[in-house]
Amino acid sequence: MKAIDFIVTAQDLAGANRRGRPRETNLRRAVSTTYYALFHCLAACCADMVVGGSGSNRSRAAWRQAYRALQHGPARQRCERQHIIAKFPDEIQDFADLFVDMQKKRHGADYDPDATAAYDPDTAFSRSNVIQDIAVAENAINHFSNAPVRDRRAFAVYVLLDIRRD
User: Fold this and answer.
1) What does the alpha-carbon distance between residue 164 and residue 145 come to, in Å, rounded to a whole number?
2) Ramachandran bin of 18, using left for φ above 0, alpha for ψ from -120 to 50, beta for the remaining angles
3) 157: number of Cβ within 10 Å
4) CA-only gyration radius of the chain, Å
5) How many CA atoms lie within 13 A of 158 on its CB side?
6) So where are the chain's domains?
7) Average pLDDT in the 17-28 region?
8) What is the mean pLDDT of residues 89-113?
9) What is the 3 state secondary structure string of the chain?
10) Tens of pLDDT along 47-81?
11) Cβ(54)–Cβ(67) under 8 Å?
């Protein structure tokens, strides 16, 4: 699974390349899929940085375990700690901020039949809002992926592993 594939699917669901108004359920799924693009980007980063990328001599089982170790709630909580996130480069800060924002929007899209808080109440899940979120996520993923390896590695360890105080 690649993050860009989730972005393309979200664009399809939002009707980015079609005329006519998409169903609200498609827009909601597009919001959810956009979040999952960010999540899978981060999961792959964690696995690549901890175990090794595709070009390395890595254990597939270990890579999969590192990929699957990322948890939604704890990752969001770490991304919300601005005093720590501020120590990372802008590309990672922007990614972390968007990760938090899109997770909230995904929860609204997936679980709240009256969800409008994440968007302007007058437009709710409008095509333009959703397409903008998709574009912002695609941009954030591209910038995050181009951040220095040492910073992505530090971020992966930060969101993936428990913090010990001793």
Assistant:
1) 27
2) beta
3) 13
4) 16
5) 22
6) 3-160
7) 85
8) 94
9) CCHHHHHHHHHHHHCCCCCCCCCHHHHHHHHHHHHHHHHHHHHHHHHHHHCCCCCCCCCHHHHHHHHHHCCHHHHHHHHHCHHHHCCCCHHHHHHHHHHHHHHHHHHHHHHCCCCCCCCCCCCCCCHHHHHHHHHHHHHHHHHHHCCCHHHHHHHHHHHHCCCCCC
10) 999 999 887 788 999 999 999 999 999 999 999 99
11) no
Check the CA dihedral 104-25-32-98 and report its sign.
negative
What is the identity of the amino acid at 86? A
Residue burial 24-62, b: 16+ Cβ < 10 Å; e: rest: eebbbbbbbbbbbbbbbbbbbbbbbbbbeeeeeebeeee
One-letter amino acid identity for 46? C
| Structure tokens belonging to residue 3 | 């993050």
pLDDT value of residue 124:
65
What the block records as the tokens of 80 is 């919300």
Task: Output the pTM of the full model.
Answer: 0.92
Give the pair of three-digit tokens for residue 113: 């039949």
CA distance 138 to 143: 9
